[in-house]
Every structure is written in C-alpha cells, then in structure tokens.
Amino acid sequence: METIEVKNLVKVFNGVRAVDDISFDVSEGEIFGLLGPNGAGKTTTTLILATLLKPTSGEARVAGYDVAKEPAKVRRHIGVVFQETTLDLDLTARENLDFHARLYGLSKLERERRIREALELVDLHDKADVVVKKFSGGMKRKLEIARGLIHFPAVLFLDEPTTGLDAHTRRRIWKYILDAKGDTTVVLTTHYIEEAEKLCDRVAVMNRGRIIALDKPGNLIKAVGRDVIILEGENLEKLAEKIDFRFALEGDKMRIYVERGDEILPEIIELSSSVGTKIRSAIIRRPSLEDVFIQLTVRPVRQ
Ligand SMILES: Nc1ncnc2c1ncn2[C@@H]1O[C@H](COP(=O)(O)OP(=O)(O)O)[C@@H](O)[C@H]1O
Ligand SMILES: [Mg+2]
C-alpha cells in the first residue's frame, strides 16, 4: 500500500477547476514535490490531502484513510506547515510547541521529550524560551517545521516552506527537511525549481490544476534533451518559424532543446542571420529542472 493515493481528484471553486483530475501515489519515506506557478492548484491539493478542504470529486487516501470519509483518522497521522504563520507570537517557542502537542494528547513527559527533539532538529533549542515575536522570518519557519514534526507524523505537508526566506536560510531549512525524512513521508509544494531539484525524490509539475509531468527530477531533465541553447536577441520569432527543434520563446529569450548544442549552434546562428534575427548572446548548457518547467508550461512549444 502506498502512503498517499490520489485518484481523479477534482476541486471546483465557482466554476474554476482549481484541481482538475489529478492522480498520483506517494511511497513511504518519499519526499514528493508539487511544483508549479502561482494558481497551479498546489495549495488546494495540499488542503484536500490534509482534510482541510473537501474535494468536489475523486478520491484520496492518506496513511490508509480516506480524506473525505475519515478525516479525524487522517489528521492523527499528519503534520502540516502552511505558508501563513499560525504561531502564537506572544508565546515562547516551547509554549507554542507544547500547545500543539497537547492537541495531540501527548503526556507531559512525552511532550517534554518531543519538544526537546524537535527544537534540536531545527537548531532552536537555545531559543526555546524566547517569545516568538522576537524571531526572524527564518526562525519562525523552522519553528513551524518543528511543530509539524512534534507528533512524529507519518506524513508531513509543507506548503512553500521557504517562500520569502533568504537563500542562506532556505538552504538550512532544506537540510532540516532532509533530516526529518526517513519514516516521515513528505509532500512539499514549491515554485522554486532548485528546491524541487534538491529535495524531492519525485516531482509532479502542476499547471492550471493539472499534472503535466511526473518523474524523478533527473528523468525530467533527461527528457528535455542533452543540451539547451539559450539565445537572446531581436526578431527571434522569425527564427522560431524556421527551426525544427523543440523550443520555448519568451520575449527576447529563446530556449532550444537539442542533443548536441555545439554541433547545432553554428547552424542556428547561420539560419538566424538569413531570416533577419539578430542574436546578442548564445549560451549552451545542460538543462536544469527550470528548462523542463519552461518547456512544459510556456507557450509556444513546437514538437
Ligand atoms: N477558496 C477559494 N475560492 C475560490 N478560488 C480559489 C480558492 N482557493 C484557490 N482558488 C483558486 O484556485 C486556483 C488554484 O489555487 P491554489 O491552489 O492556491 O494554487 P497554488 O497554491 O498553486 O498557487 C487559483 O486559480 C485560485 O485563484
Ligand atoms: Mg499555494
């Protein structure tokens, strides 16, 4: 049995299909990413799986329980960290965690032990008795992750855990997420490609409520081709009409997906000058997950 099973899940808000018939499974101990631009349906999916929103149709099971029919059982097995902070700023870090642990009915002794472990995991043990008001944005996020882990959930949902944080703090939080991994299955939403690439065992790329690709980050990258040629210049649309490679054009920037960039580039430069496209710069590099994402989500892509 998979830890999470999602089948034909749909959520409609006033006629808008925020989640539009998605299906996927997540195995125990996996870090599964939902990657996509704002409005893709990531948060809605997460809220449904965390039993905080009812699906319009379709089914989802988390830790063996149906999210719509057995929400209380699901809740006992999950931890959630959402974008908006729900910490009580007037309480200390320890008090915030203790309040949360009480909700899960942990004994006093158990609470003390788990609070200590959770604070150690995110490196906040020496700030246990500081009022959260005095915490930086990064510290609050870490405390929320600690809180999400306090009852050793089978599944942890993290909705954009590092949005708005600086690069250094983001990296540190990645480390805590990787450290928490093991018995805990993690579902993480993000619009940072790098985050998905670094943390996730598999990534579902979402756009307009749909899953448009689902694989290991490495496989998604491989599917794009060996090289990406990135051109900047003028009248690129004229070149776009003529080339036979897969490409994505965004204003004065064009990505061309090829097997051998070094062999193809001279050909492309020559073609450019013959059609009246002015190239300002050309770079060949290995594709990143961002290239995959752009190829999948930005029009026009011609096969
Ligand atoms: N409570 C709601 N009422 C109406 N529309 C909503 C609501 N929540 C989300 N939406 C819409 O559903 C779509 C998906 O939103 P969301 O799941 O928040 O995307 P993401 O988390 O990927 O940015 C968006 O078009 C959004 O405007
Ligand atoms: Mg969101």
Report what the structure shows.
By secondary structure, the chain is α/β, with parallel strands linked by helices. The protein folds into 2 domains: 4-221, P-loop containing nucleotide triphosphate hydrolases (Rossmann fold); 225-297, Alpha-Beta Plaits (2-Layer Sandwich), CATH 3.30.70. The chain is 37% helix and 29% strand. It is built from 11 helices and 14 strands. Strands 6-7-8-3-9-10 form a 6-stranded mixed β-sheet, sandwiched between helices. Strands 2-1-4-5 form a 4-stranded antiparallel β-sheet. It starts with a strand and ends in a 6-residue tail after the last helix. The relative contact order is 0.14. The structure holds adenosine-5'-diphosphate and magnesium ion (MG). The site of adenosine-5'-diphosphate has 12 residues, from strand 2 and helix 1.
